[in-house]
């Protein structure tokens, strides 16, 4: 083609065949990758079921010691790993991101499963209310209430909370390159997990993720600063949820 500087019928037919083969190969590879991702999700689900069963039975494995012996640094590492391994939503052409993908909230009738991580609004020792990172223990359809454990406690205290005090955390990361609408946008009010803690605080989105592996950059409300907000801090998609409370003036 370069020598003749034109596309003859022969080369046109050959090119069409090569493109068709390449397209079929790409689609086959895509299907294999999707099946592999589904298998990984299935394995992770089975491991989570085993972890919950062991927790109920009072047993723990080496990778997750009992909370009463878990050092804070270990807990922070586990939370970071949970954020890093959160699967990226990869839909087929034309698919819309599902609920609990990035900033998309759960459906109205959604019930979090045992072992799911949530933001839970509880009363602190001083009587004030705060949002904490918690793990679902059970849900009662009779009372419409959850039982949750504070992720940072020794398991001695269990909170019973109504649905409105529970916000399920994202189960997939949103891809900024393909599904930017599934991300919180600049200056949107959110609840974000403050770095190196297990508490959620009100914050404004400073910069949304630009790539799938990126975190949010957020500005936490902080009266110790002149403008009422902290410097930008990074928080993973896993730990950023919508805040339904009005923005403070």
From TrEMBL:
<dbReference type="InterPro" id="IPR037802">
    <property type="entry name" value="SGF29"/>
</dbReference>
<keyword id="KW-0175">Coiled coil</keyword>
<dbReference type="InterPro" id="IPR047287">
    <property type="entry name" value="Tudor_SGF29_rpt2"/>
</dbReference>
<dbReference type="InterPro" id="IPR010750">
    <property type="entry name" value="SGF29_tudor-like_dom"/>
</dbReference>
<keyword id="KW-0805">Transcription regulation</keyword>
<dbReference type="GO" id="GO:0140672">
    <property type="term" value="C:ATAC complex"/>
</dbReference>
<feature type="domain" description="SGF29 C-terminal">
    <location>
        <begin position="108"/>
        <end position="249"/>
    </location>
</feature>
<dbReference type="GO" id="GO:0005634">
    <property type="term" value="C:nucleus"/>
</dbReference>
<comment type="subunit">
    <text>Interacts with dimethylated and trimethylated 'Lys-4' of histone H3 (H3K4me2 and H3K4me3), with a preference for the trimethylated form (H3K4me3). Component of some SAGA-type complexes. Component of the ADA2A-containing complex (ATAC), composed of KAT14, KAT2A, TADA2L, TADA3L, ZZ3, MBIP, WDR5, YEATS2, CCDC101 and DR1. Interacts with (methylated) CGAS. Interacts with TADA3L, GCN5L2, SUPT3H and MYC.</text>
</comment>
<dbReference type="InterPro" id="IPR047288">
    <property type="entry name" value="Tudor_SGF29_rpt1"/>
</dbReference>
<protein>
    <recommendedName>
        <fullName>SAGA-associated factor 29</fullName>
    </recommendedName>
</protein>
<dbReference type="GO" id="GO:0051302">
    <property type="term" value="P:regulation of cell division"/>
</dbReference>
<dbReference type="Pfam" id="PF07039">
    <property type="entry name" value="SGF29_Tudor"/>
</dbReference>
<dbReference type="GO" id="GO:0000124">
    <property type="term" value="C:SAGA complex"/>
</dbReference>
<keyword id="KW-0804">Transcription</keyword>
<keyword id="KW-0539">Nucleus</keyword>
